[in-house]
Amino acid sequence: MKHEQKGPVAVGPLGLAGDEQGDQIRHGGPDKAILVYAEEHYPYWRQRLGRDVPVPGFGENLTVRGLTEEQACIGDVLQIGQVVAEVTQARQPCFKIAARYTLPKIAKWVQDAGFTGYYLRVLEPGSVQAGDSVERLVSPHPALPISEINRLLYRDRRDGAGMRRALAAEQFAAQQRAVFEQRLGGPLEDFEIRLYGSDEVLTNAADAG
Fold it and tell me: Which of 41, 181, 184, 192 is buried most, with the most CB atoms less than 10 Å from its CB?
């Protein structure tokens, strides 16, 4: 669980100082140094869950305004405080969100809503703090917003032309690149374990309706 930080926080190639990545294979590495979530989504979640959802509520490192999944594109270079970072991939929500809200299906709800968040790689380290502005410096792939990556990941999973367009962007992160490459040459991946975790959690999710 992450909490709002006061004052400047150092940011390096692997993320924010003090942010421990519990799963280095799925959640770590330079391509996932910073997880961004849009402030605009919080009213939706408060209404849907019928409860207060404090910020940060979805595991994000940075909560931003004016840069949703519809607006942030693969390869966008952002100036955030002293830090320069690049949009690399959509966040694929997992069952760990359920632990915070005790709602077994919430990762699936996040995925279906398209309010997933997205990751940045750090190009120039520095520090960030609450209130810093976010400026888009470069946008080489305006036709590849994170919402388009989400469409390909979750809805139109056999859209070969769309996946090839994403693969043509050199900034697209290796992990999601591998997902699309596998689909183009073989079977679709299974979402269940990522979304619900163990067989026990899967049973609870089914019981939740």
Answer: 41
Q: Is the Cα torsion angle 117, 86, 80, 69 positive or negative in sign?
A: negative
87-111: pLDDT as tens digits: 999 999 999 999 899 999 999 999 9
Q: How many CB atoms sit inside 10 A of residue 26's CB?
A: 14
Residue 192 lies in a domain: yes
**Cα distances (Å, whole numbers) of residue 31 to 42, 119, 129, 138, 170:** 25, 7, 21, 18, 12
User: In the numeric block, which tokens belong to residue 25?
Assistant: 């294979």
Confidence of residue 19 (pLDDT cuts 50, 70, 90): confident
Q: What number is the average pLDDT over the span 115-120?
A: 99
Tell whether 2 is covered by a domain: no
SS3 72: coil
* Residue 23 in domain: yes
Q: Residue 2 carries which side chain, given as an amino acid letter? A: K
User: Which residues share a beta bridge with 12?
Assistant: 15
Domain range enclosing 191: 10-208
How does 134-147 read in b/e, with b if 16+ C-beta sit within 10 Å? Answer: beeeebebeebbbb
Residue that is written with structure tokens 């979640």 in the block: 45
d(CA 167, CA 130): 34
Question: In this structure, what CATH number is given to the domain that contains residue 149?
Answer: 2.40.33.20
Q: How many domains does the chain have?
A: 1
Mean local confidence (pLDDT), 124-145: 98
